[in-house]
Amino acid sequence: MGTAVITGAGRGLGRAMAIRLAADGHHVVAVDLDGEAAERTAATVGGEARRCDVSDWGSVAALAASIEGCDVLINNAGIWRFHALLDATPDDVTSVLAVNVVGVFACSRAFAPKMIAAGGGSIVNVSSAAASTHSPGTGIYPATKAAVISLTRQMAIEWGPHQIRVNAVGPGLVVTEGSAANHEGDKRIERGKKIPLQRVGEPEDIADVVSFLCSDASRYVTGQTIFVDGGITAGRAAI
Ligand SMILES: NC(=O)c1ccc[n+]([C@@H]2O[C@H](COP(=O)([O-])OP(=O)(O)OC[C@H]3O[C@@H](n4cnc5c(N)ncnc54)[C@H](O)[C@@H]3O)[C@@H](O)[C@H]2O)c1
Questions:
Q1: In the CATH scheme, what is the code of domain 3-234?
Q2: For the chain, domain boundaries
């Protein structure tokens, strides 16, 4: 196993992915805007930490320059600002697009040459069930996560000949530090009842699928998005 670079690894889904990929045998580089959080994850998994803003091309270039080899890149860092579209400010739109879309491409563009030089690699992008469900009041966020799916397919097609596999996961409702407010009190149980598998997700539910997509077991899988959502996108009304 080689080096796995994970963005947004300071907490939430990214931290769970770091723990899982380290258990799989990867050397983990935990990347986060919050440098101290990245350090905590790195200490937990025996890896390295980097502070980086994935929406800043210069910051991403410095990150890539500081890491020699990269076999796995997880583009997990993402933000959301939920509101009705008519309430979206220019800053809302620019910021969410910059992290969720530009950030995914900037990191992929920076690390792909290292993977090409090494004979291949695996990139996993974090999309969302929201890309499919489009619930009212979620602003520009679903559009950014739909763009992640499109970018995943484009990169898979262009970089497949270099043996770089590019896939995405689409989490449903998962309890993390970032989403905790949506699950306070009875909300967690009530929301769970509307999901086919009858519960909201745990970060490990997502990390396990990311592990698969980084493993040899998925060696012939590329350009795909796996929704890890308890069945939300299988056909029920949006929640
Ligand atoms: N939690 C959910 O229910 C859910 C559902 C669907 C998709 N997602 C997606 O999963 C990913 C992780 O979500 P989470 O719930 O763990 O979020 P979170 O807010 O708990 O953690 C996100 C981490 O990313 C970091 N980050 C934010 N902006 C960054 C930047 N510009 N550069 C580097 N790091 C940055 C934050 O500091 C934080 O540590 C996101 O892409 C999110 O859109 C989450």
A1: 3.40.50.720
A2: 3-234
- What's the CA gap between 8 and 206, in Å, rounded? 14
Q: What is the CA radius of gyration of the chain?
A: 17
Residues 6+ apart with CB under 8 A from 193: none
Q: Is the CB of 33 under 6 A from ligand 1?
A: yes
Rounded to an integer, what distance in angstroms lies between the CA atom of residue 145 and that of residue 131? 5
Provide the annotated active-site residues. 141
- Predicted local distance difference test score (pLDDT) of residue 81: 96
| 44 CA to centre of own chain | 20
Distance 77 CA to ligand 1 centre (A): 5
Q: Is the CB of 148 under 6 A from ligand 1?
A: no
Looking at residue 80, its pLDDT comes to: 96
pLDDT digits (tens, 9 = 90+) for 5-18: 999 999 999 999 99
Q: Whose CA is nearest to atom 31 of ligand 1?
A: 53
